[in-house]
Here is the input.
Amino acid sequence: MDAAAAPTEPLRVGVLASKTGTNLQALLDTVHGREIEIVAVAADRPTAAALDRARAAQIRTGVFTLADYADRAARDAAIADWMHERDVGLIVLAGYMAILTSAFLSRFEGAVVNVHPSLLPAFPGIRAIEQALDYGVKMFGVTVHFVEDDGGVDTGPVILQRGIELPHATDPDDVHEHLRPIEHALVPEAVRLIARGAVTRDPANPRRMLISQ
Ligand code: GRF
Here is the structure.
């Protein structure tokens, strides 16, 4: 068979989660088993409902509780080893609440993406929606971005962003309910684009990711 015509293996994806796993579910429902294969789901707490979603989809799960390791470096090394054993080519942080060490990021360079509930660079870090409400913004939104070893939090190059006007918002839970469907669209879209090789870095500006459809 002509090498160019050979079918390509789906991108093997590992997901890190801490919470309910609705973004994981969005990936399972849309791109898993198609453009990508989610082969591993790890959580930093055994109670993360994301683990149940993964088990229901017959995906290998791992729990990496900080208390079980000497420190964060040891915990992250264990996660990285576990992901490498499963030949993971892309890590998706889907509501993962711990900061990854430089050593972890260097083992998955250019292959870690995160979803954040604000229009970055506004309101990075924790309690992004509360920060936005405190600031009094009228426009909220979601960013999917690469995670780089740049010393910052939520500072990596933007892949996709989408905003929503909520001029009367006062309640963080209400804002989150409006943002969730956006997250559940953008995360699979970003992963699909990466799997297709449609996301590249602009040589003229390494911060700008070019998207070819
Ligand atoms: C998402 O809203 C994400 O933006 C934030 O954590 C939440 C995770 O939700 N970082 P889920 O666990 O995917 O339901």
About this structure: The two ends are 27 Å apart (CA to CA). Residues 10 and 34 are 7 Å apart (CA to CA). Residues 17, 19-23, 50, 94-95, 115-117, 183 surround 5-O-phosphono-beta-D-ribofuranosylamine (CB under 6 Å). The chain is about 30% helix and 25% strand.
